Structure formats: structure tokens, C-alpha cells
């Protein structure tokens, strides 16, 4: 689960992309994702990385977190043409259903809890 500090549920269907292949593939070639779905990328070390939408057929929201799981930045990317670079110090990247940022009222500086159980 992914939770706000208040305990409010942000995502309940979570997949982790920790290896090179799963991180390179991301959401490519999927038809869509559920509203409560999140793909969590765990980077080997905090850094800035590029995120592209090549072969992603639907818009997504992206949350960039530091090592303490505080939100550094939030982005919405369009299918196929979306491209962005994460802030320096990014340790976690969460890709979610488009509209999640607004629906959960997420803001830079907010903390997020990621529960792998």
C-alpha cells in the first residue's frame, strides 16, 4: 500500500520495479492501469533520471520522492510524447493513474509511506 501520513490510501495495487529490465520497461506496452495501481521504481542511489512515455498508451501521474519518501516533484505526462527529468536526489519514482495527484491532493514536501506487505 501507499499511504499519506494521515493514513489515507493512495494506492493498493502496487508493483515494484527494482531491476534494470523492469525499470527500463516500466509501463510500456500496457493497455492501461487501474485507478488504485502504482508502479514504484527504487533507484540504486539518489540521482536525477529521465522518464519517457515511449510505447505508453495512456497518460500517467508521476511522483518523485527523496530517500526519506518526501515528495520532490509531481508531473503528469501524456502518452507517447511525454518526457521529463526527475529532480536531483530522487530515490523513488511512483507512476500512477492520471488524476491521482489531484484526487489525493499531493504536494511537494508531503511524505508518503510505502508498505511492501
UniProtKB/TrEMBL annotation:
It holds the Pfam family DUF192. This is ACR.
